[in-house]
Amino acid sequence: MNKxxxxxxxxxxxLVFALLSMLVPLPGVLEPFKPYWPALVLLYWSLxxxxxxxxxxxxxxxxxxxxxxGVVLGEQxxxxxxxxxxALRFRSRLRFFPMWQQALAVLALLLNxxxxxLIVRVLAGASLPPASWWISPxxxxxxxPFLFLLLDDLRARLRIx
Length: 161
Hints:
Protein name: Rod shape-determining protein MreD
Membrane topology: Multi-pass membrane protein
Radius of gyration: 16 Å
Function: Involved in formation of the rod shape of the cell. May also contribute to regulation of formation of penicillin-binding proteins.
Transmembrane segments: 7-30, 53-73, 94-111, 131-151
Helix content: over 70%
Number of helices: 7
Order of helices and strands: HHHHHHH
Subcellular location: Cell inner membrane; Cell membrane
């Protein structure tokens, strides 16, 4: 298999893995600690490969996540588009931040994502979520350095551009 094909399969595989990780059920007590995997993986690819991640791809991944989760169609597509837009806009700065500053930037992006989700759900008529609903972005920010280094290491081992 040539390098381009391997690179494409690795890219698609990580996105599919993120969507499937989103579906893993957790006990009720641990559910607020579940990070938003598609956002984290799209952020990684936004920073590492700007030509692959576009708003259209973020929209398609979001629609796939909507269909898998059974939520309002377009809810996650909107959230991922906003997240990828901001990440691509500030890509040149974010790439050269130290890891702790990148984690803080990821926290800000994930909190922005939660605020968008809150607005969409309130406009759809849902009640306000409990305070534990806000834990997930912090877990995502803590996991960011590990996820980034893991994906980067695997990409380097496979010698993918």
